[in-house]
Structure formats: structure tokens, C-alpha cells
């Protein structure tokens, strides 16, 4: 009873914070707007084409994408940490981002799609991007599974180490592929690989929305399994759960989430690491509760980071991935200092 | 472990290495985007004609390039060997421990805030950066429980490296010097600066000499702190001197060609596998093997995407990553963590 009250309260606070971030993001920028302007534009009262352009073509898609990516990374991070039973696991550190990124860069090269004018490119190719990303991400996940197993169990140390090497391997691959692009696309690819969402538009939103919605629901329905995985392996099997199968389903679902995110924004690390930790310290150990909170925290963090990335260095933009790692790494080090073992 | 018996192996390596180094030099000088005949190349050295394009290519680009590759290969491999010996950590290497990133970080600051520094100053700043990166990583490593174990140190190194390079790219983007900075960041061996090379050589040589000087103590240190103290070694001095050597070697390397990953990790392992555990052999052998490895990687990098150059970092990663995975598979796991 007490716990569920706390859960509701936490979600409410996160909602308020996200709303605050949303407010900051939509009213501020190189073109400041009053709240009243924003409301009028959204509710179509006395529309002003200039305001329409800023809100509907620039700020709103960007915020929506930041929200979706935050949710995706928050959930994917929770799954990775739950499945590996390792609080340091993160899609970025494990190299899944890099794997998805490399195959998306390959996709961009093969289809000669101008990353800059993605709206001019065909819709189908934008929709295909997450699928391509999924192949690369799944490949990275498979490599991790193969190399981190020891006597049939996943070994924590190997997991992290494999991640580090997969990261640099796929990073080199992306760099090699991107060098084959023409200079203009290369520059875009470089910014995109650091993690950036400033070229957001509604086509991207559409391309990632189904992935986020469907996979989040599937994962949430399986969230209670993550609680069991924290127990000893033998105990779980005796409960009649086919551990390996469920783990692989969960991992593949989160690779799908990550790929959808990476296909739009490039590699954004550390959200998947931080959000679950914050969520766990807020609502305890049950994954049914952790997961929505982690999604909410991810959402808030990404909107606020994106806000920082667009305003701090105005008029130039900082890729949001850089903001996230400048915020996230001190927190990560704090976790390491605090952790026992 | 009978090192006496196997003395001939490292000595053979050192004796035959000049042949491979020569081979690398010859291939490197003669082949590239423009094929140049051996005779022309020889004339470029003996009777240089400033109006001859081929001569200029040889003297101004190909020779400095192969010299830089040989030197940087040796520097990074030796730095890696020392770090692995001192920390007793099989993952220690300049790229993983944030040393490269520290160097690149300080160089970014220098490019932004003090443009137009001389090559001397750049190299010294690069060394300051190496020291900063190493200091941060080791500092955190010693604060955190088990922080100096291979895995934790690798994580800390990667994370601090990412942090430093994130801040550096933020500063660079803000000041709109990203392109200038990326010349330092991304290993561009083919664009090596001849003046910088001239300035860098003495610093690197000092580093190598320091490394050779401490090699015996590194062997003792690699047996473990307790044994080293038991054998009467002044461990603090050994650590300080060898870290100084690492700072000289990696600082010079980054100033010359940027961040090159994996050489410092992979080469010492291969060498240790062949010559055993005595650092008096490991360090010189790492130097020659590293030279030859990087020079050949450089040659490969010219032909992967012919006629365009491929950054050498890609070639070393392609060779280094599978090896790293192999190390994890055979050596990784709880025991060494």
C-alpha cells in the first residue's frame, strides 16, 4: 500500500518535472515565445505562420523525439541491467548502440540518402532505418552473448570487456563507412554518430513510434521476470520459467528499442545507465515499478539535456549526446565510488 | 619460466628486426598513390632536387611518414608494456587508460585558447595532457574499491576518456575549431608535420631511454608490490619514473599523429607471449615489434580504400579488436578481475 502510494507520487513528480522541461524547451530557443503564443498556436487560435513553423516544424517534433528516445533508452537500460544482473550495464557501454549505428551508417551509404534532407528521401527508406539498425544491434548483442559466456553463465567482467571492444570495433567500422560518403553526408554522419536530435521531423517520429510502443508493452508484460532473474538460476528454473528463452526475448526487444532510438538520434549513452539507477533508488526493487519510472526519468533527462544542448552555446548547437555524457559520467563515477564489491 | 634458457629468442628478434624495419621503409617509400621508382627514391635522398615533384613526395611526405610510423609504434608499444607491468593489469594501455584522451583534451584547449603555439609547446602540453589523463584514471582507480583490477580500471579509463573527449568536443564546437581539432584527434599519420617530427624525436628518445632504464625494476614490480618491497625495491620511485616514461612516450605520440588505439595493448601481449616475463627483453622487443606493426598497418591503410587514405586507427582496430576478444576469452573472467 505504502509502496504503491510512493510509486504514484514518484510518477506524478516526474510528470511535473517533464512538464517543466517541456515548457522550457518549447518556449525558449533562438526565437523566444510566450506561453500564450504557444498555447494559441497549439490550440489553433488565431494561427500565425511564423509561430506555426517554429512550433510544429522545429520544436514539437524535437521534443517528441526526445521523449520517445528517453523512454526507449530508459526501458532498454532497465532490461540490460536486469538480465545481466549488473548495475553497470548500459546499451552504450555494451556496444549495442555502436552496432546499430554502424549498420545504419552502412544503410545511409548504400541508399545514398542525404541525411540532411531526409524528408526529401523516400518514406520507406526512413522507415527501414530502424530495421537495419536492429540487424547491427542484434549482431552486437550476439557477440556479447557468445564472448561473455563462461561455463554456461554470463560472466560480468567479460560482458563489460566485450562491450568495450565491440564499441571500438563498430566505431572503426562506422568511421570507415562514413569516409566513403561524400563530404556533406559525412559531416552529418559524424554529428549523428555522437548523438544529436536537432534534425528532428515528423517522419522520424513515425518511424520510431511503433517500435517504442509495441516493444515497451511486450517488455512491460515480461517485467516481473526480471525480478526472478535476480534470484539464483536454479531457483528460477524450478519455478517453471525457461530462463534462456525469456532472456533472449527480452534482450532482442530491448535491442529493437535501442535500434529505433539510434536510427533517429545516433548513439546517446549513459541514459540507459542512469535512469534505471535513479528509478531503483526511488521505488525499490520491483521491475514492474522500476520500468515506468525509469522510462519517465529517461524522458525527463533527455528533454532537459536537449534543451541544454540547444541553448547553452546559442546560436550553435551541441550534440545532445555530449551533454548527456558530461552530465552522466560524473554520476557514473559516483556510482562506482559508492558501489561495494 | 626459465628465462635463461630462452634468451636466444629475444636476441634473435632484435637481430632480425632491422630486416623487417628496412622492408617496411622500402615498401612505404616506394608504394602509395603514386608509384615511384627505386632509382628516383634513391636520388631524392642522395641528390635532392627541389623542383622535382617525386623528390618532394619522397622527402617531404613518405620518409617522414614511415619514420613517424616506426617511432610512434615503438613509443606506444613500450608505454603499454610499462603500464601493464607496473599495474599488473593485462588490459592497461595508453588508449584504454584515458591517456590519449587526456592529451587530446589539453591540445584542444591549447588550440582554442592559445592558438599559434610552437611545436615545442604543443608537445609539452600534450605530455601534460597525458599526465592529466593518467592521473585522473589512476586517482579514481585508487579511490574506488578494487578500482585497480583490470575490468574496473578499463571501465574507469573508458569513461574518463569519453568524458574528456566530450568536454573537448563541446569546447571545440563552441569555438568552431572542430576541424582543426579533429586533425589532432583522428590519427592522421599521412599528414605528419616534418617540423613536429624533428621536435618530437628527442622527447620520444628520452622516454625510450627512461623505459629501458627502468625495465629491470618493472620486472620486479610486475611480481607484485609485496615481493618488490621484499626485494628492497623503492616502489614509489619506480612507479614515478615509469609513469614519467609513459607520459613522454604517449604525449609525443599524440602530438605527432593523434590517437591510435590498440598498439599499446596488443603488442606487449604478443611480445610477452614470445619472450617470457622479463621486462629487460619485453621492452626492447615491444619497441621493435610495435614499430614494424604500425609501419605495416600504415602501408595497409593506403591500399584498403585505394587511392584514398584510410585513417590508421581503423586498421589497428580491425586487427586489435579480434585480438582483444581473444584475450577476454582466454584470460578474462573472475580470476583476473
Automatic annotation (TrEMBL), chain A:
Gene3D superfamilies, sorted: ABC transporter involved in vitamin B12 uptake, BtuC
Transmembrane segments: 7-26, 60-80, 92-111, 123-147, 199-220, 248-274, 289-308, 320-337
Main location: membrane
Intracellular or extracellular location(s): Cell membrane
Membrane topology, record value: Multi-pass membrane protein
Entry keyword set: Cell membrane, Membrane, Transmembrane, Transmembrane helix, Transport
Domain of life: Bacteria
Record SUPFAM superfamilies: ABC transporter involved in vitamin B12 uptake, BtuC
InterPro entries for the chain: ABC_BtuC-like (IPR037294), ABC_transptr_permease_BtuC (IPR000522)
Family statement drawn from the similarity comment of this UniProt entry: Belongs to the binding-protein-dependent transport system permease family. FecCD subfamily.
Protein name: Iron ABC transporter permease
Automatic annotation (TrEMBL), chain B:
Location within or outside the cell: Cell membrane
Family annotation (Pfam families): FecCD
InterPro entries documented for this protein: ABC_BtuC-like (IPR037294), ABC_transptr_permease_BtuC (IPR000522)
CDD domains in the record: TM_ABC_iron-siderophores_like
Spans traversing the lipid bilayer: 12-32, 63-83, 95-114, 120-141, 153-176, 196-213, 243-267, 279-300, 312-328
Family annotation (Gene3D superfamilies): ABC transporter involved in vitamin B12 uptake, BtuC (1.10.3470.10)
Membrane-topology annotation of the record: Multi-pass membrane protein
Entry keyword set: Cell membrane, Membrane, Transmembrane, Transmembrane helix, Transport
Primary residence: membrane
Family statement drawn from the similarity comment of this UniProt entry: Belongs to the binding-protein-dependent transport system permease family. FecCD subfamily.
The protein, known as: Ferrichrome ABC transporter permease
Organism: Paenibacillus segetis
Lineage: Bacteria, Bacillati, Bacillota, Bacilli, Bacillales
Gene name of the record: fecD
Amino acid at each position: 500500500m505504502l509502496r504503491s502510494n510512493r510509486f504514484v507520487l514518484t510518477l506524478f513528480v516526474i510528470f511535473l518535472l517533464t512538464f517543466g522541461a517541456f515548457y522550457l524547451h518549447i518556449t525558449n530557443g533562438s526565437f523566444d515565445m510566450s506561453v500564450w503564443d504557444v498555447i494559441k498556436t497549439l490550440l489553433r487560435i488565431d494561427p500565425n505562420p511564423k509561430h506555426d513553423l517554429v512550433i510544429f516544424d522545429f520544436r514539437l517534433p524535437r521534443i517528441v523525439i526526445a521523449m520517445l528516445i528517453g523512454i526507449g533508452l530508459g526501458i532498454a537500460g532497465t532490461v540490460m541491467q536486469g538480465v545481466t544482473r549488473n548495475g553497470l550495464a548500459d546499451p552504450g557501454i555494451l556496444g549495442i548502440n555502436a552496432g546499430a549505428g554502424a549498420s545504419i551508417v552502412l544503410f545511409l551509404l548504400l541508399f545514398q540518402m542525404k541525411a540532411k534532407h531526409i524528408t526529401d528521401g523516400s518514406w520507406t527508406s526512413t522507415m527501414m532505418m530502424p530495421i537495419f539498425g536492429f540487424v547491427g544491434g542484434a549482431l552486437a548483442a550476439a557477440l556479447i552473448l557468445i564472448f561473455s559466456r563462461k561455463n554456461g553463465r554470463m560472466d560480468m567482467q567479460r560482458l563489460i570487456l566485450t562491450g568495450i571492444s565491440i564499441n571500438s570495433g563498430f566505431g572503426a567500422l562506422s568511421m570507415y563507412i562514413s569516409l566513403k560518403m561524400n563530404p556533406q553526408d559525412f559531416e552529418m554522419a559524424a554529428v549523428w554518430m555522437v548523438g544529436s536530435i536537432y534534425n528532428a521531423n515528423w517522419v522520424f517520429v513515425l518511424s520510431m513510434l511503433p517500435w517504442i510502443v509495441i516493444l515497451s508493452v511486450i517488455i512491460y508484460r515480461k517485467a516481473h521476470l526480471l525480478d526472478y532473474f535476480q534470484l539464483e538460476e536454479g531457483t528460477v528454473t524450478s519455478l517453471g520459467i525457461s530462463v534462456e528463452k525469456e532472456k533472449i526475448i527480452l534482450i532482442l526487444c530491448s535491442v529493437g528499442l535501442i535500434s529505433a532510438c539510434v536510427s533517429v538520434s545516433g548513439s546517446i549513452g549513459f541514459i540507459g545507465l542512469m535512469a534505471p539507477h535513479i528509478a531503483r533508488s526511488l521505488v525499490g526493487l520491483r521491475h514492474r515499478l522500476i520500468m515506468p519510472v525509469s522510462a519517465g526519468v529517461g524522458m525527463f533527462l533527455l528533454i532537459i539535456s536537449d534543451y541544454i544542448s540547444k541553448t547553452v552555446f546559442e546560436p550553435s548547437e551541441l550534440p545532445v549526446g555530449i551533454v548527456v555524457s558530461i552530465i552522466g559520467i560524473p554520476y557514473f563515477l559516483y556510482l562506482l565510488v559508492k558501489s561495494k564489491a | 619460466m626459465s628465462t635463461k634458457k630462452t634468451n636466444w629468442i629475444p636476441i634473435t628478434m632484435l637481430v632480425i628486426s632491422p630486416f623487417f624495419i628496412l622492408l617496411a621503409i622500402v615498401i612505404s617509400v616506394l608504394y602509395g598513390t603514386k608509384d615511384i621508382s627505386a632509382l628516383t627514391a634513391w636520388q631524392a635522398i642522395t641528390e635532392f632536387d627541389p623542383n622535382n615533384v617525386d623528390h618532394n613526395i619522397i622527402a617531404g611526405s613518405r620518409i617522414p611518414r614511415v619514420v613517424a610510423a616506426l617511432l610512434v609504434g615503438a613509443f606506444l608499444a613500450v608505454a603499454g608494456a610499462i603500464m601493464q607491468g607496473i599495474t599488473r593489469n593485462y588490459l592497461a594501455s595508453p588508449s584504454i587508460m584515458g591517456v590519449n584522451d587526456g592529451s587530446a583534451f589539453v591540445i584542444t584547449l591549447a588550440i582554442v585558447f592559445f592558438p599559434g603555439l610552437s611545436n615545442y609547446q604543443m608537445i609539452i602540453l600534450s605530455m601534460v595532457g597525458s599526465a592529466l589523463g593518467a592521473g585522473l584514471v589512476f586517482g579514481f582507480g585508487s579511490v574506488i574499491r578494487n578500482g585497480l583490477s583490470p575490468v574496473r580500471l578499463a571501465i574507469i579509463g573508458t569513461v574518463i576518456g569519453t568524458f574528456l573527449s566530450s568536454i573537448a568536443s563541446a569546447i571545440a564546437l563552441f569555438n568552431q575549431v572542430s576541424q582543426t581539432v579533429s586533425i589532432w584527434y583522428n590519427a592522421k599519420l599521412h599528414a605528419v608535420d616534418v617540423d613536429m617530427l624533428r621536435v618530437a624525436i628527442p622527447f620520444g628518445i628520452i622516454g625510450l631511454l627512461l623505459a629501458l632504464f627502468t625495465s629491470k625494476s618493472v620486472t620486479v614490480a610486475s611480481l607484485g608490490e609485496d615481493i618488490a618491497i621484499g626485494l628492497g625495491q623503492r616502489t614509489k620511485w619506480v612507479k614515478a619514473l615509469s609513469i614519467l616514461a609513459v607520459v613522454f612516450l604517449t604525449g609525443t605520440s599524440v602530438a605527432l599523429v593523434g590517437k591510435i588505439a590498440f598498439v599499446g595493448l596488443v603488442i606487449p601481449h604478443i611480445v610477452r607471449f614470445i619472450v617470457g616475463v622479463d621486462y629487460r627483453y619485453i621492452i626492447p622487443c615491444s619497441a621493435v615489434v610495435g614499430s614494424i606493426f604500425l609501419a605495416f598497418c600504415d602501408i595497409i591503410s593506403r591500399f584498403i580504400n585505394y587511392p584514398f587514405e584510410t585513417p590508421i586507427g581503423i586498421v589497428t582496430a580491425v586487427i586489435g579488436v579480434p585480438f582483444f576478444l581473444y584475450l577476454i576469452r582466454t584470460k578474462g573472467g573472475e580470476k583476473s578481475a
